[in-house]
UniProtKB/TrEMBL annotation:
<keyword id="KW-0325">Glycoprotein</keyword>
<keyword id="KW-0812">Transmembrane</keyword>
<keyword id="KW-1133">Transmembrane helix</keyword>
<dbReference type="GO" id="GO:0016020">
    <property type="term" value="C:membrane"/>
</dbReference>
<keyword id="KW-0808">Transferase</keyword>
<protein>
    <submittedName>
        <fullName>Non-specific serine/threonine protein kinase</fullName>
        <ecNumber>2.7.11.1</ecNumber>
    </submittedName>
</protein>
<keyword id="KW-0418">Kinase</keyword>
<dbReference type="InterPro" id="IPR046956">
    <property type="entry name" value="RLP23-like"/>
</dbReference>
<keyword id="KW-0732">Signal</keyword>
<keyword id="KW-0723">Serine/threonine-protein kinase</keyword>
<dbReference type="GO" id="GO:0004674">
    <property type="term" value="F:protein serine/threonine kinase activity"/>
</dbReference>
<dbReference type="InterPro" id="IPR032675">
    <property type="entry name" value="LRR_dom_sf"/>
</dbReference>
<keyword id="KW-0472">Membrane</keyword>
Length: 79
């Protein structure tokens, strides 16, 4: 295990080396580091805006189910 913590490192952790295979704890105390495996994104990285939540997805599914059931009752004349 390589411990690079508290070494005043900065910039993006290279993705083409084994550096990404280390735990995020190996880089603790280097607030200017960014990129995987750390949680802080680097400047210019794309961060998803407003990702759909499970609740929103379920609500859409429920609406579709209700529509299908209503269609069934209309087609077969069931009251």
């Amino acid at each position: 295990m390589l411990d690079l913590s508290h070494n005043n490192l900065s910039g993006r952790i290279s993705s083409s080396t084994q550096l990404q295979s280390f735990d995020a704890s190996s880089y603790s105390g280097n607030p200017a580091l960014c990129g995987l495996p750390l949680r802080n994104p680097c400047p210019g990285d794309l961060v998803p805006q407003n990702p759909k939540t499970t609740v929103e997805t379920e609500d859409i599914g429920d609406q579709e189910d209700k529509l299908i059931i209503r269609g069934y009752f209309i087609v077969f004349g069931v009251d």
